[in-house]
Amino acid sequence: MTKQCLTWALLIVSVFLCPKTIRSESGSCDLSVIRGNSMYNFSLPSPRPNYPHGALSEDGFYKLALNGTFLWFQLCDQMIFNHDPPRCVGCQGCGGPLHCGMKCNALVAEKIEGYYVCTTIGQHSTTNIAPIDEKDLRKGVVVKMSASNPTNKCSLSVSVFCDPSRTHGLHSIDKHGTCDYVTELWHPSGCANIISIHGKGLGWFGTLIITILCLFGGYLLAGSAYRYFFLGIRGLDVIPNMEFWLHLLEILQSFLGSLVGRWRRRSQDSQNPYRPVRR
Asked: Which of 181, 189, 196, 260 suits a disulfide with 55, CB 3.0-4.6 Å?
């Protein structure tokens, strides 16, 4: 019974009590980040005043053209072309020649030997969102999309800066390396919805306790792994200093049992007004 209790205690320490990252993502373009007593919520597809589709283009795609390079992309979703579809060679990764641009998030076309050649640089399944500046979350977020083909390492990063009054940008295309493209957009959807969570955190004492428990759990896991793989020990004996922890658990059980016994005796004495008089 004692060994089973110790095993459950180790599981609780190592799995449930260790703090996870404070950043949580509920969708490819939704992001929540906690800083101090505030939670910064970003949701690029959510409607805004005058922008019913959020940061998504109402046309179904954004288009940039600069120095013979054409770039089409859509934030948070696949592109839709009701007019002016891409006309280029090599669109197999994004809808093929009949539906070019309809099966990806981002597509770039460059002129090679007189022909425009397409390269898929973004898929919805590979879209990631992160703050532009971890130290200043009010700046906005950067959306990075990349090709899902292992042989295609291309990507597109769109920095969506916060501008609460209007949308502008998409005036330049920067190319890094072979086919990593970067552009910028200012949009109200880049502004975070800030929620105060004052008084709902763990506090310094709770954080200290969880940190100590996590360090303890890490020590047990590392020691157990060493004894299992390098010393060949199996069973519950794989836990380092097993005898010490069992002895400590027995002392704790004895101490708690003593406290419970004292409390019960005091409770019984308080309920019985006729106590024997000692002579």
From this structure: 189
